[in-house]
């Protein structure tokens, strides 16, 4: 068992087989740096619980393929990324920090799927990003590198 | 297993080494010797690794000395030395490891110094670590990791000035450290202060909360305070700060302040504009080119910067955009200019990494620019570019040696000369599309419809493109002569499309397909008229009856 500690001082025990899906922790264990609690100063307990849930489910990826549990795993993944933008952001940052390749793929694909065909305005609103491009700068982008086509309507709805 | 040889043994020993079953690995090694299977370099490497991973110093030494004495019939290579250094250094025999390096013939390699460095770090020998790290920097001056190790080392030794010097050196050499997150851990592990240090390119996580100047100062002073207060420290990357004073007395109050600051720093914020560039690029790389160009790059400055990253610009594929039917405006010069601007931007942003270009209606200038700046180009698909000439194509031949797929259909200013040049200079070319149209634009392609012209092109293909696997020559006016040259020259062809090639007879095609042994699919001049060909026996008789619209692609 490996002990992880979130930035709000909560400790979690995770099976080593699950936790080594994180390249970072795997390296720490290999280097013998994981003898006591591993502090994760970038991750709060809410996010860490999500990540551990994922790690536990994906503990034996290879086995799942053999026993035909792939569909089950796929369904879990679908349910897993069914979260708000803020939560998704936290999980992506955690996956990036812990270097969990599969989780990163899953979350980034989910983010991309939601951004597909969305207008600039919709993207900004969904992700609460303030536009810091001036009108001149925007015009410059259009002049230097115009999109050559007349496209169909873009989805302006926010969800 | 039926066949037990040195390779299967090597695999077993290596596997056991990785599983840290050193003794088991050694047992197999001895079995191997007993069975008179001669160990090779790989076996020795594996067994030494096994000793290293399992801390079996004496056994390792013994094996190495018999290797030195020539027992196995070959002298130890640099890898064996590296393995031995790793073994000794891991187990704390650092002096022995160093003398091993001094003894080895030839210059020590990166892996040798790397092994020493890892061992020294493990056993806390800072002086020797420093020595090894400098050696590594000398051997691999472009690898930022060694600089970081060295800087951290100086940090641990309290030599902040030297650490700063390393960092300056990195900057001078234009190296960037990957964004790293560092933690300063207090002795009782209750208080954690999170610091972000990225040298040069970092997106500070809390940029919006503090202005960078203020933030850095406050974190710096907090860290100093904490460092001064507690003897046991653990960190990976140290924050930007000045020379570290030897002793700082801190009061209860400043400790409290530090705690407060630490709490503020550690509070999470969910700001998508602050997502690290690497993560953002990961997400954006999953969007279509249309989404990137019409939406993502206008979201904010950070996103615009990300959209210009070479990783997102190694491919420009506009094929899907051309599927919609709006052909009229596309033949206008303004449209060509827009496509040119897009290509110019992507070529610039790709920074030499451009591999795929699939466009239409671009100009000669764009092709020349691609040729000049994209040495890694693999796919060039530019059908319907009426203004691209042999001149630009010859530059492609010289500038893009990795080209494997080329589509120059309906480009009527490109001739057999380009085909010859590209065949000569791009040995990887596997797919060629050179389709023409029937008499849709007689003025433009008049000369192309002359049989001898088709035969020139066929001759160039047959002579200079022997590696072709797929060839499309729809409506080529070549004759039986041209087809014969292709079937003699391009013996690797698997797919051949001769739709609309009205100057070749079915007998020509039969001859060609019999000499092309690897052929899997063959599209004949017109499948629906197949039965009639036998009656007339000659395609040219049929030429007059073709409805041009029928062949429109």
Automatic annotation (TrEMBL), chain A:
Role according to the record: Involved in ubiquitination and subsequent proteasomal degradation of target proteins. Together with CUL1, RBX1 and a F-box protein, it forms a SCF E3 ubiquitin ligase complex. The functional specificity of this complex depends on the type of F-box protein. In the SCF complex, it serves as an adapter that links the F-box protein to CUL1.
Pathway: Protein modification; protein ubiquitination
Protein name per UniProt: SKP1-like protein
PANTHER family: SKP1
Family that this chain belongs to: Belongs to the SKP1 family.
Domain of life: Eukaryota
Database matches in InterPro entries: SKP1 (IPR016897), SKP1-like (IPR001232), SKP1-like_dim_sf (IPR036296), SKP1/BTB/POZ_sf (IPR011333), Skp1_comp_dimer (IPR016072), Skp1_comp_POZ (IPR016073)
Short name of any one Pfam family annotated for the protein: Skp1_POZ
GO molecular function term, any single one: cullin family protein binding
Presence of keyword Transferase: no
GO cellular-component term (any): cytoplasm
Summary of subunit composition and partner proteins: Part of a SCF (SKP1-cullin-F-box) protein ligase complex.
Gene3D superfamilies, per database record: Potassium Channel Kv1.1, Chain A
Any GO BP annotation: jasmonic acid mediated signaling pathway
Every SKP1 component POZ domain range: 1-59
Keywords: Ubl conjugation pathway
Domain SKP1 component dimerisation: 102-148
TrEMBL record, chain B:
Protein name listed in UniProt: F-box protein SKIP1
Gene Ontology BP annotations: RNA modification
PPR repeat start-end pairs: 5-39, 143-177
Cited Pfam families: E_motif, F-box, PPR
GO molecular function, one term: RNA binding
Domain F-box as annotated: residue spans: 274-313
InterPro entries the record matches: E_motif (IPR046848), F-box-like_dom_sf (IPR036047), F-box_dom (IPR001810), Leu-rich_rpt_Cys-con_subtyp (IPR006553), LRR_dom_sf (IPR032675), PPR_At4g14850-like_plant (IPR046960), PPR_rpt (IPR002885), TPR-like_helical_dom_sf (IPR011990)
Keyword Glycosyltransferase attached: no
Keyword field: Repeat
The keyword Repeat belongs to this UniProt entry's keyword annotation: yes
